[in-house]
Design goal:
Outer Surface Protein A, domain 3; elongated; 14 helices; seven-stranded mixed beta sheet; Rossmann fold
Length: 382
């Protein structure tokens, strides 16, 4: 082991015998009591020395080996120590790609703060390279989400959309102005390729992949259609094969100057698009009538999609997606986050699984069903 104090956490002495690691309440840790000699020794925990050398240098500072071992274990238990050689074979392979790793230094620092075990950040960053994510939509939100996911190390990012890019699709971080007139899917592939730090895993059938190589399964689908209505009021029929195959999917977009992220649907575990529809129908008897009009009406107006709001939604959606891919359940799991212009007050609404929905999530979570009087549970959203 080559222990290193996590460099992303700033250190400061609180009085004479306590050290605080980190500034923000979410990750700050206080360690004490601690004397000056031990504080000086901690400066040696920079990842360049193994435990044997650390014990040797500690003796020169009149610190016992037991003291060193106890200190390191104590700091590890507090989630303050990383191991520059840990993380497994995939992390070792990533470290050999110096050009890629340099691009990912900030991501690695963040992951090391979030995941306390030594090597946890490197392990998760390396694991992203084997994942496959599909983004449905190449507008201001979808294209930016795809670029962020690719830039964050996701090995395979596919973007599905039709038609040709229009001036209104252009966004910083998304499709460039030069893409106007090109097919959206082609322009999005080029965007993803430019964003990726080095070559990703070879696609099946590509040179070196072997003729029998299988397409990896989808780790996640991000649904971010250019018309935000399709993400805010998702079609249960479109989502049915994802639910049937157990494919997680996350909705995001902008509709009528309102940005939204979620729900993240874990098939069989959290509410799905059909649950959303059934919940809304129970709450508002006129919902099916209005929905039919919205879906059949011909749209002539330009979509309301503020660039700043779209960028914020894309960033939040990508962050939630990465959190999920790294093994966590972000706050969009079974919930939708919304913020409307001009105040941009982000709020969350829980979405309950509906007892009448065939997705089966109501057996795992609190189900929602209208009473005989036609009322609905308040956890319904959308």
């Amino acid at each position: 082991m080559h222990p290193m104090l996590k460099p992303a956490l700033r250190r400061a002495w609180r009085g004479g015998d306590t050290v605080q690691f980190g500034v923000t309440p979410a990750h700050a840790v206080k360690v004490g009591p601690m004397d000056i000699a031990t504080g000086c020794f901690m400066e040696l925990l920079d990842g360049t020395r193994g435990m044997a050398l650390l014990r040797e240098e500690a003796r020169a500072m009149d610190l016992s080996e037991r003291h060193v071992d106890t200190l390191v274990l104590r700091l590890m238990d507090a989630g303050l120590v990383d191991d520059v050689r840990a993380g497994g074979p995939q992390a070792d392979a990533l470290r050999e790609r110096a050009d890629v790793l340099e691009r990912h230094r900030p991501d690695l620092a963040s992951l090391s703060v979030v995941h306390s075990e030594p090597g946890g950040g490197a392990r998760r960053l390396a694991a992203r390279r084997a994942m496959r994510v599909q983004v449905r939509g190449a507008g201001r939100v979808g294209a930016t989400v795809a670029a962020v996911l690719s830039g964050a190390g996701v090995g395979r990012v596919e973007v599905l959309d039709g038609g040709c890019a229009e001036p209104g699709d252009v966004a910083p971080g998304g499709l460039p102005a030069s893409a106007v007139g090109e097919r959206r899917d082609v322009a999005a592939r080029q965007l993803v390729r430019r964003a990726t730090p080095g070559p990703g895993p070879r696609a099946p059938g590509a040179g070196g992949a072997g003729p029998g190589a299988r397409e990896p399964g989808l780790s996640l689908i991000v649904v971010a259609p250019r018309d935000g209505f399709g993400g805010y009021v998702p079609d249960p029929g479109t989502a049915e094969p994802w639910v049937a195959s157990g494919t997680p999917h996350l909705y995001a977009g902008v509709l009528e100057a309102t940005g939204f992220v979620g729900p993240l649907v874990l098939p069989g575990g959290t509410a799905c698009a059909s649950c959303l529809h059934l919940n809304r129908r129970d709450r508002d008897p006129q919902w099916p009538r209005m929905l039919a009009q919205w879906q059949s009406g011909r749209r002539r107006a330009v979509q309301a999609c503020d660039l700043g709001l779209a960028t914020a939604v894309a960033g939040l959606a990508a962050a939630h997606a990465l959190s999920f891919l790294d093994g966590e359940l972000p706050a969009s799991t079974g919930a939708r986050w919304e913020a409307a212009l001009p105040l941009l007050d982000w709020r969350s609404q829980r979405i309950g699984a509906h007892l009448d929905c065939p997705c089966g999530a109501a057996g795992q979570t609190e189900g929602v069903r209208a009473s005989a009087a036609g009322t609905a549970h308040d956890t319904m959203a959308g």
